[in-house]
Amino acid sequence: MGVLQEYLKKFQEEHKTDLPKFNPAEMEIITISRTTGCGARQIADRLAEKLGYKVWDSEIMISICQNMELSKSQYNLKDEKDFALGKNYMGDFFDDKGLTNFTYKKELTKLLYTICLNNKAIIIGRGANFYIKNALHVRLDADINKRITKIAEDLQSSRIVAKNFIQKTDKAREKFVKTCFGKERVKNFKYDITLDTDNFTYDDVCKIIMVAMECHKANLKREYID
């Protein structure tokens, strides 16, 4: 049983009747939307270490598939490493493989709710920014050439392969969020902070997000307590 399943099981056992509510004034959740190869995972890991948070990334999608009892062969998952690198695109799930748009959102809601109850989390992608109102919403990007260089190193591939990988992955992610949340909502979504990782070191990006998080937490307390 994965960590998310353990959280969810404990949550369901402890709250069989009344759903617990988290205090928005105390919420410490960061969502990160990103382009492929901008260093989001590395930044999230460093940020989590500095803040004492937990990072949730591909574990969420894997957990949803496990909850739906989809076999690895059904979603062509060789192993978690392949999945984390993005070789299976979430846009592919909305067909006859057993995971519909409605089912995905239902399962995602349960898992995100559980993560929020445990608080102090960094959630990468998965459309979490459209669900969690009081989180700090971050968008990360980088120059395409630098992203190609990074992905080529990660995949140990040529730049042509890396470029195709980036284009396919970003296109699939865009299709995924528009399918789940609607084109207009995606188009009009406003992030709290948008950073180009070309212009800063990963540690600098972490520092900026940490300062933004402190301001965000103060604003939540003023809104919900004062």
Note the run of SSEs as H and E: HEHEHHHEEHHHEH
Largest sheet: 5 strands, parallel
Average of the residue pLDDT scores: 79
Put simply, the count of helices is: 9
- Computed over alpha carbons, the radius of gyration is 18 Å
CATH superfamily: P-loop containing nucleotide triphosphate hydrolases
Instruction: Label the structural class.
Output: alpha/beta
Helix content: 40-55%
Can you put this structure into words, describing what you see?
The chain has nine helices and five strands. Strands 2-3-1-4-5 form a five-stranded parallel sheet, sandwiched between helices. Helix 1 packs across helix 5, helix 3 packs across helix 5 and helix 6 packs across helix 7. It is globular, with a radius of gyration of 18 Å.
Labels describing this entry:
alpha/beta, disordered N terminus, Rossmann fold, 5-stranded parallel beta sheet, 226 residues
In short:
The chain has 226 residues and is an alpha/beta fold. The chain has helices at 3-14, 40-51, 58-67, 80-85, 101-118, 144-155, 159-181, 183-188, 202-224; strands at 29-34, 54-56, 121-124, 136-141, 193-196. The chain has nine helices and five strands; from the N terminus they run αβαβαααββαααβα.
